[in-house]
């Protein structure tokens, strides 16, 4: 069996591929749903409805998609530059930690350093400080593996992966210690953000918040950077062929470091947005693996920043819809994760098949035999 | 016909398409026992494609391959190997981190044995090596071998399996004249033992020397086959290209100008990419081409990287127009140094970027192309279209990814990028490293003309090349590099082929009439 | 000093080997995949699947070794999936790996929940017993005698794998496809077959590592019980520079830090020279030390040259 | 008579000790035909609010869960569905009009098991393994330690947290380490600890659930949490249409049979009679309200 690049990739195939993948996914998962003894047709209707079928469904899907967009962008930026950042999870947590460190107050009032400012500016300054702090925290966390890779050749897949564990323990330590909310009855959670910092809701009686807008704007921004700026060209060149980029006079180390900072900052921002948009304070389980999902999303999107938006909404919709469906037809709710996993794999396969043709060469056995 | 022995190898109606491109168009060929068949053709004519099909790397869209009259299943190198085909690829296929013996042994034993027969294998390798004069240490790590040694390993690989048909895809492209001679010696011996050879080369001298028959491909089609003895170089060249090719030579009356660059007792420390450069001095003048001869792996890379602003001297100084220059590529580019790297795929271009993006990669500080960090795409594209036209870069236009260019066209793109960017302000120094490696004669002629024109416009040119003909045709002065040391640059006419060869082997102290340099070499 | 007391006691080393066994299996599994040029981030999920299916088989009456075999078989299947995705279809190895982890994990949980819908305590099996017959052997007896047979298998696996890689034609083929697949193919090796085979075998080892958790270290299956052990193995392979002996050493060292960490933590404030640190600091210790170790060995790490590079026949 | 529609939303799998008690009580109510019971387990923090909302939308009359880490989200939903009864495991206060709270206030039997442990240890060394140092765990550990100290002032404790709720091999490893240090009675807050004790022939004390059937020669005594009284009280209120914001914490006390010292079972004859006499006396004092176990929620530390 071998792959052969197709001469021309038809638009139909490229855009049809995801739908083919979805069909395959539904077929595979139908077996699992049927195994649990649930009605398959109804289950899928419920899934669709739960993910995209109502205002509430959309609000939930978009809420779930917001942090995914940011971690997806973070991964896409890093992967483009061939920096395999598997550490968005840790960067997210550190960003969230920084956000509550800056914007959290036991009494809910403005922190002392802000109150000396004019009343009107206080909120904005504090908000900006919170966002910047979260982004810097995430950026610095990825800077370490990036520098280790550049200077000492330490594999960043491994270091970013390990840092996830370290950061989670660090957050646990902070929430148990200095940053613990004294009013949280001893439960390990941070003090709550100043209420003014919480992001505005986009819909009544829902959780969608303005972080969604922010994430989408950033996706467009990253796309524009990639496409129109020198830095974008440099990132792509360094990622595709660092040696040639260096020869042409590009500052490879600086570009890698900047890309790392950008990537880490985006993941850190995901943490800020979750705290400011959804929970209001930080706990140890604020992210159900958004960082790892970022890798999935970035790849589904083919590392394209705008694709990240679509992929996030798709994945979030499936998760939300399948979760609701599992409850309604009484199948174990891990079905949601199964569906996302199968969807990811079949999506990857489908886009591959849209670009490549699989050829099975006739194999004749009369002449084969062992060599030597 | 029916009573003559069947050909060892017969290709019938081979057709292979890559997308819309027809790389091989209905090609039929025969190879007889004890025969050397030369395959000629421009870059991209389809030579490698044809032999790759024959060996099973590629699968033909149509046509059959027969060995001794029996059909060969398509797409199976195992079957080709079993049928007695050995192939030395255009680009080495050796694992650098493994030993020579491992590279030879792989695939020759059943995978399910619980241990390797290394002792017996080593003895056999030694035997083949001595019999055919292919000296190489079986225990050595391939990554540590010179290019010539790797070539020998590739040939031993084929012989170890008892190949009866040997395919050599541009085996001499990177060899020294001495190594070429020894390779041809081995070939003669093999042919005498009944081996048949398919030999691919761009060097017509070699083709005339070793082959019995010549097949010429052009644009995927077989345009002629015939006995070597019944043709000549000029005719072959014309058939390959479809027109007469004029090889440009230097104008000996060209006068040299002021000093452009000076290397004063410069040393460069070895690193992963290159070996050391030891105490090298050289002066480059405007309007003059200085050639650096030498066997690859003797410090050429270090010298090229030094003069491209990549490597920094560990001792001594490099000055350009009297000013020292830090090892920062941008500064060298800004100072008017046009750089043509040795490896066009790995260093010269970024395959995933489009031609226009590649064309401006050296110009990201130029306000013509970049304003406030934003690329002026219109200007960049216009510039690239102009470059494509002036340098005759064929391959689909400014929006095509550079990886789709053939080697010759990629080289033209790099030349264009290096030589044409400044408009009125021509480059002061051109550093060209192996600029014609692997190019067909049409492209070679083109590149050489560009270098001569640059010199004629007043640039100093540093030409690092292993091709002695090229140096004799272009260089005003030639210096020889050997294990990091450089002889004085002497007028080209004062070198004989013999003295060059000796100097390249690092032995020709008599041939180097310069006591200062002698001491440097002795000290090493 | 207390530290010396700890590391010179037999029970400490018993703990080290017990903690280390799943890591040894996992690390050698990753090593085998990566030697063939394939990064396998599916390990975390494959360990979960191995832990679940190995336990499940025994729970349904299979002998313990039967459970291990079932786990290995499931590992082979997921290895085949990962192999087809990354080798035949040349998909990104990172993403395919994460996809396999997601799939194996969620499928295991799904199946477990279908099979055991309303249990209030996790059902248990009778796990492997310690190899008491070894207890009287001098020197190693006090340690190995307290371990189960799977630990012995893990310890023997390293030299076996080293022999395979460095002494057999198959091992050479595996290393070759990880170094230069084009060269291997030019010598008649079926690159895809060797790569997929290595990934499958490596995945089987990972699954057995998972099964150790449920049939040896413990006697029941829990959600999340693999708890990041797979990721550790990915790091250990780099630390080991892709050498089986060093992989064994690395896994044992990591386990030693982990076991030591538990003991230091329990020492509380009493440990001389150390203030009472939050327990998280101790939990961090093995990870921090892993990164430091990586930094130390990175310069010398000789990556398989074709690692993470998909090989498409007939393409350059 | 119509069944009450009850939904439960758990952040962990239903095998997890804490949640298993709620799950059990609700399943029993379902078996008795009193309720329709649906649940979601392993619901992540990020999804919690949505799941609760969906149950509320679907018309559940009573929703149970643990709102510890999602306090504000849970309370927000409750406000949006004032007709639905919310009964949440929480360290916080009830919230008008419909948000009630409960918690595993089983420090009383924990104290008693501590006494038994203190009396049973021969090495005067007790080991305690926990997942995370959260108040729900800490207060039981402190009560246990107090109880042990009452009967045995010389006893010392080794405490360690493994940083995971679901890593029995790791918990077992921590317990082994304690046994190596000389502990001969282990407080089994996590799965895995009793296994270590069993393998080494040491004793263990159960927590929240009774694991003696699985470890007949190891688990001496357990502090049981019974959710039945809490559930019964809440169902009664819902049925009567009188559910409001209340603290159901008291229903987890021994007085209401929300907590108890599990029967000694296999250890009936192995625990010294005079020790048991002291324990029983303390039990009575608690039931009579003459003795109150102190609630301490700080992180417990090893003693020396
Ligand atoms: N793997 C491939 N995918 C797509 N196109 C290919 C591939 N290999 C070769 N080609 C196409 O086939 C043509 C023939 O290429 P081939 O390598 O056979 O040329 P060649 O005659 O060997 O050239 P050279 O002298 O430079 O070695 C090329 O122009 C190229 O367009
Ligand atoms: N991946 C690819 N996809 C499509 N076409 C390709 C690909 N790789 C190579 N080609 C085609 O192969 C042709 C020749 O490529 P190749 O690199 O062999 O050039 P070349 O002339 O042989 O140069 P050199 O020998 O210096 O590498 C090009 O014209 C290009 O179109
Ligand atoms: Mg070529
Ligand atoms: Mg070729």
From TrEMBL, chain A:
The chain crosses the membrane at residues 12-36, 56-79, 91-113, 125-148, 157-175, 212-233, 245-270, 290-322, 334-354. This is ABC transporter permease. Pfam families: BPD_transp_2. It comes from the Bacteria. It is a multi-pass membrane protein. Its main location: membrane. Keywords: Cell membrane, Membrane, Transmembrane, Transmembrane helix. It is found in: Cell membrane.
From TrEMBL, chain B:
Keywords: ATP-binding, Cell inner membrane, Cell membrane, Membrane, Nucleotide-binding, Repeat, Sugar transport, Transport. The keyword Repeat applies. InterPro entries: AAA+_ATPase (IPR003593), ABC_carbohydrate_import_ATPase (IPR050107), ABC_transporter-like_ATP-bd (IPR003439), ABC_transporter-like_CS (IPR017871), P-loop_NTPase (IPR027417). Residues 9-244, 261-508 form the ABC transporter domain. It comes from the Bacteria. One of its GO terms (molecular function) is ATP binding. This is Ribose import ATP-binding protein RbsA. It comes from Cupriavidus pampae.
Automatic annotation (TrEMBL), chain C:
It is found in: Cell membrane. InterPro entries: ABC_transp_permease. The chain crosses the membrane at residues 12-31, 38-58, 64-87, 139-166, 192-214, 220-240, 247-264, 284-303. Its main location: membrane. The keyword Membrane applies. Keywords: Cell membrane, Membrane, Transmembrane, Transmembrane helix. It holds the Pfam family BPD_transp_2. The keyword Cell membrane applies. It is a multi-pass membrane protein. This is ABC transporter permease.
